[in-house]
Amino acid sequence: MPNFIDRRLNPKDRSLGNRQRFLKRVHEELKRTIRDQIKSDKIIDVDAAHGVPIPKRGADEPSFQHSRTSGERHHVLPGNETFSPGDRLKKPETGAGGGRAGPGRGENTDDFVFALSREEVLDLFFEDLELPDMVKLSLRETVSYKSHRVGFSTVGTPSNINVGRTMRNSFGRRMALRRPSEKEFQALADEIAALEREEQPSPQQRHRLLHLREELEVIERRRRRIAYVDPVDVRFNRFERQPLPNASAVMFCLMDVSASMGEREKDLAKRFFVLLHLFLKRRYERIDIVFIRHTDEAREVDEETFFFSKQSGGTVVSTALEEMLRVIEDRYPSNLWNIYAAQASDGDNANGDSERCAELLRGSLMRLCQYYAYVEIIDERESEIFGSTDNGTSLWRAYRTVDSAVPNFQMTRVARPADIYPVFRKLFARHQPVQLRR
Amino acid sequence: MARRPASTLLFDGSEWNFATLSRTYDAIEAIAIGEMGLDVYPNQIEIISSEQMLDAYSSVGMPLMYQHWSFGKRFVFESQLYQKGYRGLAYELVINSNPCITYLMEENTMPMQALVTAHAAFGHNHFFKNNYLFRQWTDAGAILGYMDFAKKYIAKCEERHGLNAVEEILDSAHALQDHGVFHYRRPPRLSSEKVTERARERLEYEEQTYSDLWRTLPTAGGSSGIEEVEREALERKKALNLPEENLLYFLEKHSLILEPWQREILRIVRVIAQYFYPQSQTKVMNEGCATFVHYSIINRLFDQGKLSEGAMLELLASHANVVFQPGFDNSRFYGLNPYALGFAMMQDIERICTMPTEEDRDWFPTIAGNGNSMGTLIDAWENHRDESFILQYLSPAVIRKFRLFRLADRAANKFCEVTSIHDERGYSAVRAALARNYDPVANRPDIQVVDVDLLGDRQLRLKHVIKNGILLEESNRDATLAHISRLWGYEVSLAGIDASTGKVLYECSSTGA
């Protein structure tokens, strides 16, 4: 008799530590990959698991290996059908002879993709943005659900058995199938016992006893065949996870797509939008995203077009705001929707239009919006000049007036990914009594 | 068809529980020990889930292993293959230890559990306990204790010296894993835990009481000069025991820059590599032995009426999968299947012993018709490794069965040439070539430490003996050299010298970081 040990309940994640070490090892490489992926992903997809190719650099394990392209070897292979000694076979283009390299150390991992979890992706994403830990924590939080009773089900765990319902089914089935009841059974048994007690039974009694015994046997057999509680009777309480009630939110992404917005500017803008989306996702069950791009005219577009297609023309920012107002009136009544807006621009605007923008915001938009964030994407060199002054583009100066008048309007200049967070600081510091200003 | 009485069946259906497992184990044991005469370590059978099997895969099958990123990489790789369905998991995993630990997967059906119990807990187990390589080179009783020590020691080093410092040493040590093995002399037995504990305490004491002052004391006969120094150098070289093929051992003992804990880590990697050394030399025999044992046992169980026909059919299907050998031009071909080759050879030995043909009497006069197949097999399992086993026992019948042929492959030529096939003239050549392919010495680059100029530039000189003109893969070679020089601390040079002509084919070096 050997020693049997059941290890199935032992912790499974013995390799987790090793996996983390591996991720750390290839961290830089992964970060680049994830950034590239986020650039091309949809905003809503950032917050999910990603597949990334195993990075080659930093993860190779060298050892002395025989080179496959030198020297002389003798292979022995099975399955000879047609060859005789002296036959010559042309070599395949790569590798030598017939044998293929099995997997092992130094295996080719070029086309091999592994999955990073949502947490790992977010970690890599947050690293650039330099979010405070508290914020990271709250962003990673997933929505809570509550279980509600919803009817019954035929499958479930024993702890969820609904006894009342199960017994009712059992009772109905027993009646329908005429399962002899305990009472009948007992009555018969009693009568038999009484007859058996008779010292000198008459022939009728003996006959009756025989008859009763047969009957009892029939009853017993019937009771055995028709179960008291059959699996078909069993009912379980059914629970359904329902998200905690939450209002819906709509997020407007506004971006200037004129020629002055290059690859770098768009990348920064995208991160800005992603961050706002992550935040909203934490708080709202349902989020719609509306993309509005503008040059000298604005249009609602899909995400692909928003980030990747080029358009030429001047820049009139107010058209985007008007388009946004139109969409809100059309589809997102502010009593049903929480409206968030994020605008990214390089600050260029047509003469005199900036004032109109500020007017639109103060007059109507800010009354509808929960929150409005504006980032102006500037050159890294400019960031030193403009630092914190009130000078700047006309749009910046116009928005300053809104900023000082409306509490839930935020604006900042962004030159590096790390600059993005401050614009959201107020959002994340929501529960703090003191409102932080930049 | 006569129906067997149900009562003799060990189990019915595919569900298993510990009662059926244990009943089946006893029936298998009765056959393995009582009828076949196998000799095994006590068994410890553990049930694990597929996740745990993946975990075990990535830590080279050991139940305890220190932490390193490369295991994480392997884990990611294996779990991906598994999840994508490219590869199934093994049904079992067995560890050469005393007691012999066998892992069974919980997903296995009951017939499969019976099969793998016979395969691992008796087949592999018998081989581990009796094969001369395992007996000489590994210490089954001490390995688990040693792994426990290694894991704790490395964790402690990480705490004291930081993850990165430990990782660097492990990276370098892993690069030399294949060169951390004594190929020709028996390694010293693993000292018992107490002894290692004491040695470590001594090292720690030395570390604490070390004083740099002593080093600056002038030597006694200061002026007697250069001759003295040279003589000392010669003596030192002799003491270094050069040439040395175990690079890790050499670096552990003689590196100029390593601290005691770093040497201990090299030692750990070396000991583990040494432990696995016999396994790499006995793949065909080990799997062949286990497959032969499970095949014999399940047939016997069936004959005894302890297996139902359904279960037997399942097992035969699974057995046929295991010993499947596609031809070289088949898309599923991944080299010779050690299960197939080993099993076929052992079945053939059984046939030669009991029903020899004229040909067998010519080729195997000593065993043909001796009527004692089990004794012959047990003797072969005990005294051979793959190379010698094939050289000794590969019969023309098996060569014909596999239709083996020998292919000469010269890198300079655009073609490969068929030099021998499965015919009268080819048997010996095919057999010799196949045996040679299983010879670890032929398949591993032969690299040795040949010289150290300790008084000069302290350059460590390595020699690669090139056989059949097979060079080293260059990027890997340079990266590995860099690892050696990291461990050595000074320049390391490698010269490739042709074994037949003595000509130097290449030279390269790496300076210490």
UniProtKB/TrEMBL annotation, chain A:
Residues 95-105 have a biased composition (Gly residues). Residues 52-107 are annotated as: Disordered. Pfam families: DUF444. Signal peptide: none annotated. SUPFAM superfamilies: vWA-like. It comes from the Bacteria. Belongs to the UPF0229 family. NCBIfam families: PRK05325.1-2 (NF003707), PRK05325.1-3 (NF003708). This is UPF0229 protein AC244_22570. The lineage of its organism: Bacteria, Pseudomonadati, Pseudomonadota, Alphaproteobacteria, Hyphomicrobiales.
TrEMBL record, chain B:
This is SpoVR family protein. Residues 15-439 form the SpoVR protein-like N-terminal domain. Residues 445-498 form the SpoVR-like C-terminal domain. It holds the Pfam family SpoVR_C. It comes from Ensifer adhaerens (Sinorhizobium morelense).
